[in-house]
Here is the input.
Amino acid sequence: MRSSKSRSRNKNNNRNRQSGNNLNRVFDSSGPEGKVRGTPQQIIEKYNQLARDAALGNDRVAAENFQQHSEHYTRLHAEAQREIDARREVQERENRERQQARNEQHQPRPDNNQPPRNAQQPQNANAKDPAAADQPDVAAMPDPADVGLVDTPEQAAPKARRARKPKAEPKAEPNAAGSADPEAPKAAE
Here is the structure.
C-alpha cells in the first residue's frame, strides 16, 4: 500500500516556480575557458572581455567562439527583458482600468435636466464673479482705530519699563570696639 505522503510532497512544487527567464537568474555557462557563473548581463560582459583578449592574442577562432557564447546570453537577456516589459504593460493597463472604474464609481451621475458640470457656464447665473467686481484701494481703507477693531499685542506699543532702584550696600558689622567703621583701629584686648 502506498503512503499518501509521497503524493502530497510533489503537489505544490510547480505552483511556486516562476515561468520564463529572469534578469537576476544566475546561470552556469560551460565555455571553452571553463565555467562562467553569473546573471546574463555579467556573463555577456565576461565573454566579450574574453573575446577581446583572444583577438589581441591573434586567436580569431577563440574570439569568434567567445562572441557566439556572448550572443547566446544576449538573446536570453533580451527575451527576459521583453517578458518583463510585457508584464509591466499588462499591469499598467490593469491599474489604469481599475483607477478609471474607481473614478467612475465616485463621480455622481448628472441628472438629465441639468447641464453637465464641465460646461463653461457658472453654476449660479445670478452670482457675480468677485474678481470682476471693483476692488477697493488699500490706501483708501479706514484707520483700524476708527473702525473699532481691537489691537493685538503685536500692534500695541511696548510698555515703558520702570527704572530699577540701585542695590543698597551691605551694612558693615560693628567691630569689637563698637564702631561700625571698618577702618577704625581695633581695641587692644
